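Per reviewer request, we include the raw input and output of the structure prediction for the construct analysed in the revised manuscript.
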Amino acid sequence: MFRIITMEREYGCGGGAISAQLAQRLRWELWDHRLTEEIARLANVECSEVMRCDERVDSRLHRLAKAFWRGSYERGSRLENQVFDADCMVSMMEQIAPRIAQEGNAVVVGRGAPFFLREEPDAFHVFLYAPRAEKIRRLVQDGATQSDAEDLVDSIDRERIAFVKHYFDADWPTRSLYHVMINTAVGDESVIETILHTMHLVEGRPKATDYEPAKVPSSI
């Protein structure tokens, strides 16, 4: 029986909101903002400090880290504390992931969760995406300007690609890591129903996912 759902998502596709609705439907714990709180606790900093760092970081790894903090509260997410960086986030996630696995009944949004929890047999892994126009539409609907939405859609996922390559030596998305990949343009309710239905269909079957490091092109 699946007890964990990891939700990886393209920026702007509505992954945060869909994850929240899914957690509410299942009556499971949503590990989205709660991850921010746990990271702040483990790093011994105030949550507000973690959330304010977004506008102050300037190193490349810091910018990569902030991309993974954008979930259902994407534009409001900030990381603050000059000692908090991508290495720290990965270290904290390594500490938190076993706890999530032990507790179960969890929907975990981003932050490399499908990689950290890839060996858990009761984890169901989802990747959400959408056409560029749909992602921009959602962001504008949420209050972003057209130009800001276009810039975010074009830049955030590039940073996520670099983050996954740096820390996991994998492509993003690593298609073999997910049980299902869904286009959110079909509508939030359809996405949730598809996830729940697919979980039911594949429950008890052999492990379908695998972690494939990025391939290095062979020299000619």
